[in-house]
Design a protein that fits this description.
Blueprint lengths: L7 H19 L1 H4 L11 H20 L4 H25 L11 H24 L4
Length: about 130
């Protein structure tokens, strides 16, 4: 089955995952506080492994043969990340130093990541059967 050109939304999703993956290595300490306290001892490897996973998903999204699986992987990866955001929502307080750890920041993370899951699933459906 021949597929048409890659949709722009797929390219955009791949670019976002690539940028996020690179950020995991360019500024890992920025992401360490997002790792839940019960995983704090493994913050460094968790950030690195999730960065590799984001880069892999990005690459898979760009190739027609792996696009559907890449989009499914993106949805799954973000769904796993939602666990950390729900954990943060339980612990959030208005007096946190970083806005991303305050109620508004945590809410934006939850809403944004839920939208990413929906977007990735839409890309998976548009990639056709595999």
């Amino acid at each position: 089955m021949t597929r048409g050109p890659r949709p722009r939304d797929t390219d955009t999703l791949a670019a976002i995952f690539a940028a996020a993956g690179v950020a995991h290595f360019a500024a890992p300490t920025v992401l360490h506080p997002v790792v839940p306290p019960w995983m704090a001892a493994w913050a460094r490897p968790v950030v690195a492994v999730s960065g590799v996973a984001e880069l892999a998903v990005s690459g898979a999204l760009l190739h027609p043969a792996t696009r559907r699986r890449g989009a499914q992987g993106a949805a799954g990866l973000i769904a796993v990340f939602l666990v950390t955001h729900v954990d943060a929502a339980v612990r959030t307080r208005r007096d946190r130093a970083r806005w991303i750890e305050r109620p508004t920041g945590v809410t934006l993370r939850l809403v944004g990541n839920t939208a990413f899951v929906a977007w990735a699933l839409t890309v998976a459906r548009s990639a056709g059967p595999r």
